[in-house]
Amino acid sequence: FPGKSPHVALFPGAGMGHLTPFLRLAAMLSSRGCLVTLITVKPTVSVAESTHISTFFSTYPHINRLDFEILPCNPPNSTNTDPFFIQFEAISRSVHLLKPLLLSSSPPLSAIFSDFAGSVTVTPLAEHLSIPSYVVSTTSARFASLLSYLPFLFSENSAKFGGSDNDVQIPGLSPLPLSTIPPPFFNPTLFFTSFAISNAQILPKAKGILLNTFDRFEPDTIAALNNGSVLSSLPPVLPIGPFEPYEFKKGDYLSWVDDQSVGSVVYVSFGSRTAMSKDQIRELGDGLERSGCPFLWVLKSSKVDKEDNEEIEDLLGNSFLERTKNRGIIVKGWVNQEQILAHPAIGGFISHCGWNSVMEAARHGVPVLAWPLHGDQRVNAEVVENAELGVWVRDWGWGQGWGGEKVVKGEEIGEKVREMMSDEKLRNKAMEVGEEARKAGQDANGSSVKALMGIIETLRL
Ligand code: BUP
After folding, report:
1. Whether 115 is catalytic
2. What atom in ligand 1 is closest to the CA of residue 333?
3. How far is the CA of 361 from the centre of ligand 1 (A)?
4. Closest Cα to residue 323, out of 379, 269, 285?
5. Is the CB of 455 under 6 A from ligand 1?
């Protein structure tokens, strides 16, 4: 790598959905000649985060670790009750402790890459220290557009949220159906919304916005972001995904998957911080049984893994486990999802459409049955459908605590799973998406490879 090695500090947000892309980015930058410092916020919210951080540093000893001890925080009268958002708030309130850490970095930093949720903290600090800052978005380009535009949706000039009764209009984008917008966004006084607005307002000060997506997956949205249609004040938007996986440890469950025939298994996961109601968990079990497909199901019954103490037997009942024991595997705990999706036996993915999961499915060309439950997931599900990577049953509604209290019945779930698993057209389309994803991220001339190398070259100067 000719020229000086850029020194990049990475500042991830809270939760595995935010940490994972940063660990991947750290490994990607390091393997391309950058010196990398990963800022690790202490304490973490979940056990999964602290375990992954430790494993990561033992696998990549040449990546520097910079511990950032944050102050406890949950101010009285706050509307913020989500443990992950309480952490974001604590990070914002501890920013003065970050400054000396950044100043003491050696060699001096060439840039700092911060999670969108940390940009209100990091971008002004980096500006004050004259370090270029980039924002890393861990969601779809389409949801990132909504976030960027959020301050204007609430501005005095905006007649009402959107402009029509059914859609939200963002310049340059196809209309976003109102039903896909996270309901808290309709209330700017909520922490979730005011925090998103504050971070969005800072975006124009960043040197660039890095996206874990690729040109061919969201071409129109990426073009609209970059040609100034969405907002003329945004910096360049650089799609550099799908991010490469950084570890491949084999879990026990894989020997069961090895024994299944090609494309036969449905993989089920709703991500690291989505718990379904117990009634819905039972109906999902019923649906998987009715589908007749072999299944690998990662089961969570609480939002934060530290509190996930309920046994599988108590959640699903012994008779269910007895009936399905030769047909399915249920894992309570962490699996290596990317490795599962890479396995030829996996023929479909029931997913909440957390963006990392979407990019992993895209990378391996696995068809998705989208079941979005909160946050950005409905907008992401729409992207999945438009890219022909999957299908989405819209009337399954939002998840628990997000206004969707409906329990989807096992019979309907079973039918949709069977449909997805036997849909040849969808399977072929998903494989094409996989090809495009690999080209973008692996070919020397791939759009994402070129964008990443371009950033590194800029930092070398
Ligand atoms: Br659960 C689980 N193993 O057992 P998303 C998740 N993951 O590797 P989320 C595992 O965590 P947000 C497990 O592959 C993905 O990279 C998964 O991120 C991995 O959803 C990541 O898909 C989860 O974005 O985060 O956790 O809901 O709400 O931030 O989207």
Report:
1. yes
2. 4
3. 12
4. 285
5. no
Identify the CA nearest to 114 among candidates 149, 152, 88.
88
Q: What's the pLDDT at 256?
A: 94
Cα 131 to averaged position of ligand 1 atoms, centre (Å): 31
Cα gap 345→348, rounded to integer Å: 9
- The residues that bridge with 137 in the sheet, in sequence order, are 211
Dist CA 97 CA 107 (whole Å): 20
Mutate to test the pocket of ligand 1, among 20, 51, 272 (most ligand atoms within 8 A of CB): 272
Mean pLDDT of the chain: 92
Whether the CB of 337 sits within 6 Å of ligand 1: yes
Per-residue pLDDT, 165: 63
Tokens of 31: 């393997």
Asked if 410 and 420 count as a contact pair (C-beta separation under 8 A), the reply is: no
pLDDT > 90? residue 76: no
Q: How far is 83 from 394, CA to CA, in rounded Å?
A: 28
Q: Pick the atom of ligand 1 nearest to 18's CA.
A: 29
Angle of helix 191-202 versus helix 141-153 axis, rounded to 10: 100
Token pair listed for 140 = 């779809």
Burial (Cβ within 10 Å: 0-12, 13-18, ≥19) of residue 61: exposed
One of 82, 115, 215, 305 is an active-site residue; which one?
Answer: 115
Taking the C-alpha atoms of residue 170 and residue 163, their distance in angstroms, rounded to an integer, is 10
Report the first-to-last Cα separation within the chain, whole angstroms: 13
Model pLDDT, residue 84: 85
- Determine phi and psi for 200, rounding to 5 degrees: -65, -35
Instruction: Say if strands 237-239 and 111-115 run parallel, antiparallel, or are unpaired.
Output: unpaired
Distance between CA 396 and CA 407 in Å, rounded? 8
Cβ of residue 299 lying under 6 Å from some atom of ligand 1: no
CA–CA gap between residue 363 and residue 365 (Å, rounded):
6
Query: By the 8 A CB rule, do 348 and 419 touch?
Result: no
Distance between Cα 296 and ligand 1 center (Å): 15
Q: Is 364 a catalytic residue?
A: no
Nearest to 200 by CA among 134, 146, 239: 146
Q: Does pLDDT of 115 surpass 90?
A: yes
Place of tokens 């990392």: 356
Is 356 touching ligand 1 by the criterion CB < 6 Å?
yes
- Rounded to two decimals, the pTM is 0.95
Task: Work out the number of other CB atoms within 10 angstroms of the CB of residue 217.
Answer: 26
Cα three-residue angle 31-36-40, rounded to 5 degrees: 125
- As a whole number, mean pLDDT of residues 4-12 equals 95
- Return the half-sphere exposure (C-beta side, CA atoms, 13 A cut-off) of residue 233: 11
Q: How far apart are CA 173 and CA 223, in angstroms?
A: 10
Strand partners, 36: 8
